[in-house]
Amino acid sequence: MATDAPIKSEVEIGDYQYGFHDPTDNYAFKSRKGLDAEIVRQISEMKREPQWMTDFRLQSLEIFESRPMPNWGGDMSELDFNNIYYYMKAASEQGRSWDDVPEDIRRTYDRLGIPQAEKQYLAGVKAQYESEVVYGSLQEDLAKQGVLFTDTDTAVQEHPELLREYFGKIIPPGDNKFAALNSAVWSGGSFIYVPKGVKIEFPLQAYFRINSQNMGQFERTLIIVDEGASVHYVEGCTAPTYSSDSLHSAVVEIIVKRGARCRYTTIQNWSNNVYNLVTKRAMAYGDSLMEWVDGNLGSKLTMKYPAIYLMEPGARGETLSIAFAGAGQHQDAGAKMVHCAPNTSSRIISKSISKGGGRSSYRGLVKIAKGAENSKSNVVCDALILDPASRSDTYPYIEVEEQNVAIEHEASVSKIAEEQLFYLMSRGLSEAEASAMIVTGFIEPLVKELPMEYAVEMNRLIELQMEGSVG
Amino acid sequence: MSSVLKISDLHVSVGETPILKGVNIEIRQGEIHALMGPNGSGKSTLAYALAGHPNYHVTDGSIEIDGVNITEMEADERARLGMFLAFQYPVVIPGVKVADFLRHAISNIRNPERKEGEGLIGMREFRKEIRERMDELGMDPEFARRYLNDGFSGGEKKRMEILQMAMLQPRFAILDETDSGLDSDAVRVVSEGLARLSGPQMGVLIITHHERLLEFNPPQFTHVMLGGRIVETGDASLAHDLHANGYATVRQRHPDAAAENARAEQPTTV
Q1: B167: nearest CA in chain A?
Q2: Last residue within a domain, chosen from B120, B151, B182
Q3: Are residues B62 and B104 in the same domain?
Q4: Beta carbons of B91 and A417 less than 8 Å apart
Q5: Tens digits of per-residue pLDDT, B173-206?
Q6: What 3-state DSSP class applies to A252?
């Protein structure tokens, strides 16, 4: 992947290179549009779920229906819940090898470079297409060590006890309207269990692809990292460009036990017609480390604030957030850190870029609960605004119920300085190259935290976003 | 054939304020010119105008390289034609590594037809070259991995400018007070660096208040700027004389320009 010259995609729609789509008329199953108890029951039946899950879904639907839309964050006035397909199954079976995956779908993943990446540097892959995971793999030696990496539907059938202990416990359906929605209609997502002491060297990756118009994708991910174990999970997301909107509303629950380590990296590059409303939360226990690396480049509106609850002494939480808001985009992203025990520490680093009338907001919470003395938190958010039409806002919330704590918050907003542009241009860089270089430099401190392949991808996406942006 | 940078009757304004009022200089490849003058005389304005800063508007006159009028060109086009400015105050670009930046810059300068996204100069070749140049300037190779000018001392920044000049090999280099704010060791390194680089392939315009840079790089021509004009041109001895005696006699010889300079000095524009 790492070549000197950026690779040009054969398909480019505007600046977005993943905007192509496959035909949908040969799908195995497609629910009717709209949402009610019948649809929810239908999904549960299709999946041959145990009664407890059907009940869980139906109760969640009631919560979803009873909750008002959030009156903060982004503009959701055009989001029409009745104009969405809540469940679509493109392939009748999940493939164990890429050859088992229907050709259309396989070609899509080829174009996204997934099988190639799998060969080169991944320990396991899940590919979710619409509502279902169509392909899954895990390195044999990891399976032998007891690592579980399946789609969450399979986990309901094959690992019911382990799943039930945690499912919906970190993020209950009543947490917020969109968590309730996901709980009612969830499908797919990853289920990962890493046994005590097992350290997975290479990342596990899930790739989420929406293909249809007006699609709702509601994956549900649960990751359990047992004591002293470690895992790096990476997700990527793309969708075709359509004139009408799609909805992606995931729930991700993570448990990081004593001395364990989990890093969760997202490179979200949805097309600009996708509402991306996601709830992500991790519970970190004694001396563990939880890290969210959250890259938001695509979507129409993203509202996402990955949270870490620091539950026991010595737990550490870190969130690195990169948001890029281009024309017609609003990235309302940030992080939450909740210190529930003494001697816990957290760090949030947020970098946002707004261009072409795009809007980025940092929204974050640091909470130090009573009893969490000697806790430390450090928040740094930097915003870069590329033109006068674009906008950046910061909403930092801090709640402290304990005296002996250290909290730092720094925020900066900068515009691309003319002097920086001139300096680089006087060395022979075009205005577009110079701007891209300044932006790349701005996010460099975060990108260097990514594995090399993702860093290359991130920089390439930023370059694509920047192309044609300067006249 | 040696190239010529020809500045003819150049008038430059910043905002509404005219600063240069008809500057004429002709620099050939291989020549060293010194540009001197009191504060506010317009020296840095000339440097920026030559490099193509968008805030420095040419209201009259022209800048040509070998007969090609570059007055309306963007800074990057000029750079590709061989123009280089060593900044008085180099700009910090956070997160951009010196090596990445320079590799990009060199690829554009050496291949002026290069399109965005086309291949860069080979990594091996580039590394070898930058190591050699850094070595000559007594720079720690670690600098190549640092962010451009970020956290650099004054001396380090100036050395970085000279490194860029060494890598880009311009036909015409303007050094805007490259020796100011440096201790004598740093001035020596920069002066020696320039002396090594300048030669038949480079025309140099040195803007300076000090003598040291010129000792290592004796100019064939010394221009004195006052009130936005070149009021006198001489040889190296003129530079020496100005260093020794200041601008009082120049002001006496050119009372009108001196009066304009005095007016320009009041609001510290340039």
Answers
A1: A427
A2: B151
A3: no
A4: yes
A5: 999 999 888 888 888 888 888 998 888 899 999 9
A6: strand
